[in-house]
Every structure is written in C-alpha cells, then in structure tokens.
Amino acid sequence: MVQIQNVAFGYDAARPVLRDVSLSIPRGSVIGIMGQSGCGKTTLLRIIAAQYLPTAGTARVLDVPTSELDREGLYRMRRRMGMLFQFGALFTDMSVYENVAFPLREHTELPDDLIHDLVMLKLEAVGLRGAAQLMPAELSGGMARRVALARCIALDPQLILYDEPFTGLDPISFGVIVRLIRELNDSLGATSIIVTHDVQEALGVVDYVYFMAAGRVIAQGAPDAIRASEEPFVRQFVNGALEGPVAFHYPAQEYGAELELEGS
Amino acid sequence: MSLAQIREHARGRLERLGNAVTSQVWRWGFASRFLFYMVVHSGTALRRFRLTVAEIYFAGVLSLIIILVSGLFVGMVLALQGYETLQRFGASESLGVLVALSLVRELGPVVAGLLFASRAGSAITAEIGLMKATEQISAMEMMAVDPIARVVAPRFWGGVLSMPLLAALFSAMGIFGGYLVGVQLIGVDPGAFWSQMQAAVDLRNDIMNGVIKSVVFGVAVTWIAVFEGYDAVPTAEGVSRATTRTVVTSSLAILALDFVLTALMFTGGKSA
After folding, report:
1. Residue A214: which of A55, A41, A60 has the closest Cα?
2. Count of the separate structural domains present in chain A
3. Which residues is A64 bridged to in the sheet?
C-alpha cells in the first residue's frame, strides 16, 4: 500500500530532516510512526500525503510514485486517501453537516437526499448524528476530532493518515478516538498510518510500530516487541524516563561558565 | 574606521539592499502568477455562482452601511464647501454640477475604494490567512479540492463585482447628500440643481470613466487582499501583518492608479 525506500528530505541542504528512511506498510494494517517532537515523523507523513516530495529515494503511495504525479494525478490519488489533522481543521464557516458533506459535494454529483443519508451514516459512525446542525465553534476538542474523522472517511478512503490524533484529548474522548480508528479501519478495509508521540496510548491500537529519531527509523516491531525492547532509546521513550540517550538538557556551555563563577 | 571596514560595511549594506530588491521582485512575480492561476481556475466560481454570490454578500452587502453613510456625509460637505466658493462668483446654481462631477469622476471610486480596502479587503485577508493558520487550506488540498479555485477565486470575483456597485451607491448617496444641503438647507433652486447636473454630466466621459476606475480599483484591492491572505505566515502575528499590508498596499495602489487613470482620461481638459 505504501512503500518508502531510502527517502531523504530537507527544507534546505544544510538541515536534513529525514535521512535514508525505508518502510513498508501492508494493506489493511494500522501502523504507528512514533518518536519525540522534531524527529521527522510529521514530515514523513507529509511525504506520504505527497505534500512534500523526497529529495532522494522514492515514495510509492497507493501503488503510485508520488514524484511522478502531475496535479491531476495528485488529486486523483488524494481522492483515495483521507487525512485527520491535529486539531481537526474543520471549516469554521460551515456546520458539522456541511463539513462532512463537503467532499461529497465537491467530488460527486449525488442528489441532496442521498448526500443527506451518507452524511448521517458517517456521523452515526462517530456518534455525532445529533450534532449535525452545530457549528465547529460549539464543539469540544474531542467532538471536533470526531467530526473531522467523519469528513475524512466521507469518500471511503483506502488510506487514512492521522497527524497526532490524540493531542489535547480528555481520557473519554481519547478512548473514543482510539476505538474509532480501529473500527473504521477494519470496517472500511482501509490502511491507517498514525503519527504520534503518545506511545502508551497508540501501542494499544496499532499492529506495527516504527520508531524514529533524528530523521531515521531506529526501531520497529509489533507493540509487544516494542514494550519488551532493550533498545535504550525505545525504553526511555516508552517509559517516559528522564535519563537515557535523549538528554534532558539542550546542549549549552558549562553552567559555571554561564554564571561566570571563578574556577570554572 | 579603516578602509577595509568601510568597504565591508558598504558591501553588507549593498547585499541587504540587493536581497530586499530581489525578494520584492520575486514577490511581484509570485503575485502575478497567483493572479493568472486564479483567473484560469475561476471555472468553479463562475459555474457554481452561488459561491460568488455569498462573497458578494460578504464583501458588498456587509460594506453597505459604511459606504452609504460616508457617501451621504461627503456629498453634504461637498455642497457646503462648493456653495461657499461658487456663490462668490455668482455661480451657486452650478452646485449640482460640482457635486455630481466631483463624486462620479473622483470621490466616488476613490473614497469607496479606500473604504472597501479597509472594510472588505482586510476581512478577506484575515479570513484566508486564518484558514491557512488553522490548516483548513491544507485540509482542502488533502481532499483533492483546489483551494485557489474553491476559496480564493469566489472571493476575488465577489470583490471585483461588488466594488463598482458600491462606488455607484456612494456617488448616488453623495448626490442626495448634496441635494439635502444645497437645495433643502441652503435654498439653491432645485430645477437649476438637477437640470445643470443633467446637462453637464456626460454618460461616457464622466460616468463610464468613473465606472472604469472603480472596476480597476476593485481588481487591485481584491487581488492584493486574496494574495496577502494566501501568502500570510500561518501564525497570529503573520495574519495580523498580512491584514495591515492589505490595507496599506491597497490604499497606495488606489491613489497611484487614480492618478494614472485620471491622467489618461481627463488630460488637458479633454476626455480620453
């Protein structure tokens, strides 16, 4: 479904963000891409979404090399995928109903009553059929994420991308989103990629995990293997430990020298 | 300061100047390509015309209050000032001509354009900039919907169509204000007020030229507004700066274009 081979990427030559990343994502699976902030995982998601093109290597998404796509080809591919943004990215001037109906109106010639049925079907799937007439400003963070999820699956995508879907959610909303990601993936027969740094939570929903650090994949495996991993970085990350290969302190000159203490 | 330091200092300044000029030229090129792309991809805005109608409401109808009230007061002040000068030469019955020509040729398009830039232009920039900052534009792209065709083009055409109508309403309201002060308050003969205006104001040379100005201002203001919004840095500060740039650049563009158009249309007392 998604093949990333030796991909490198940088916003400029001096600052590479991804270095020689390779991964393979089979159809029907839920994959987690994890790592601390700034490790390049969101950039990798944007390469999979063809928002960025790799500076080296190839990214094949839905069996198409993204660097060979023209504008029409890119849009044709994106009609087969959905993306859930970190805070939902709902259209604030449209109601919940109109947000979910948006992709259907833009890409199909379906009559209004059929669009109504489809929108209600999608909202029922995320438990928000009763909120159809609310505006995005009237929704809680968790509800907004669920509406965005309903919009994301409106056209029954084959590939669903999640950019930090758990950020800022209360435990109940979090549980709902986790359950929805798994259920929607299985019922649609889709493939899902979740980019997150909420490790413990994500390990409960994914089939396979890629761990990233400094633009590289440094560990991978099934959730149980990751939990049992002896790799110091993975252990530190999974347990949220202060001590480990990731230093608490940002690199700086000697503390004594900073304070201009004698003898330092 | 040594000669080498002076040379280094001068080189630094030249580099900064060069970078500023290059980035400005690049921005102009980007804005021109943006306009071209937007016009070419205006099919959605024209085919689904209700999208453009919604923007006419947003940019045009919601600007009506400030346009109508300003037009009324500008017309009333013109009548007061005009009467004061005209009566010295015994030409107070030409008050209607003075008010109408001032408004139709100049003040209508220019003042309505400046108000339009402040009210609607800034709102368009802020809206598109915030859509970018909250990833709504990215979400649209990920749904395989072109945001320039779906979001930007309807706003552009909504603004372009609204501006001449607002300028016409501004002028009409100004003439009514001039009538209220000149005829009803000061006592200028209403027959002379209207008949001299009718005789002196030419449809092609005065009214059409005013309409052409307002169309040009509409294109300039709305182009600047949508471009600044789309090009805004997606942060609160970035959107704030873009909104300010829209008002300042649009206002300067209106004044510069007005001078050029006036020079082309009315030079030497002859109409183009």
Report:
1. A41
2. 1
3. A61
B141 interfacial to chain A (CB closer than 8 Å): yes
Residue A115: helix, strand or coil by DSSP? Answer: helix
CA distance A258 to chain B (A): 31
SS (H, E, C) A177-197: HHHHHHHHHHHHCCEEEEEEC
Structural domain that includes position B232:
41-269
Q: Is residue A241 part of a domain?
A: no
B118 reaches A (C-beta below 8 A): no
A138 lies in a domain? yes
Asked if A75 lies within 8 A of B144 by C-beta distance, the reply is: yes
How many domains, in total, are found in chain B?
Answer: 1
Residue B3 lies in a domain: no
- Cβ of A89 within 8 Å of Cβ of B150? The answer is no
User: The domain spanning residue A79 has which CATH number?
Assistant: 3.40.50.300
Find the domain containing A192 and state its range: 2-229
Distance CA(B267)–CA(B35), nearest Å, equals 31
In chain A, what is the straight-line distance between the N-terminal and C-terminal CA atoms, in Å?
57
Q: Would the CB atoms of B136 and A83 count as touching at under 8 Å?
A: no
Q: Cα–chain-centroid distance for residue B99?
A: 21
Q: Is B148 contained in some domain?
A: yes
CB contact under 8 A, A106 and B145: yes
Is A240 contained in some domain? Answer: no
Within 8 A of A148 by CB-CB distance, chain B residues are 139
Contact check, Cβ <8 Å, B144/A107: yes
Q: Do B136 and A78 touch (CB under 8 A)?
A: no
How many interface pairs between A and B have CB atoms less than 8 angstroms apart? Answer: 47
The reply to whether B1 falls in a domain is: no
Q: Does residue A261 belong to any structural domain of this protein?
A: no
Task: List all residues of chain A from 47 to 106 with a beta carbon under 8 Å from chain B.
Answer: 49, 51, 74-76, 78-79, 81-83, 85-87, 89-92, 102-103, 106
Here the tokens at position A23 are 């991964």
Would you say residue B8 lies in a domain? no
Q: What angle do CA B81, B87, B93 make, to 5 degrees?
A: 95
264 residues of chain A, pLDDT tens digit each: 888 888 888 887 778 888 888 988 888 899 999 887 778 888 899 999 988 888 888 889 988 888 888 888 899 899 999 999 888 899 999 999 999 999 999 998 899 999 999 999 999 988 889 999 999 999 988 889 889 989 998 888 999 999 888 887 778 878 888 888 888 888 888 899 999 888 877 888 889 999 888 888 888 888 888 888 887 777 787 777 766 676 666 777 788 888 887 765
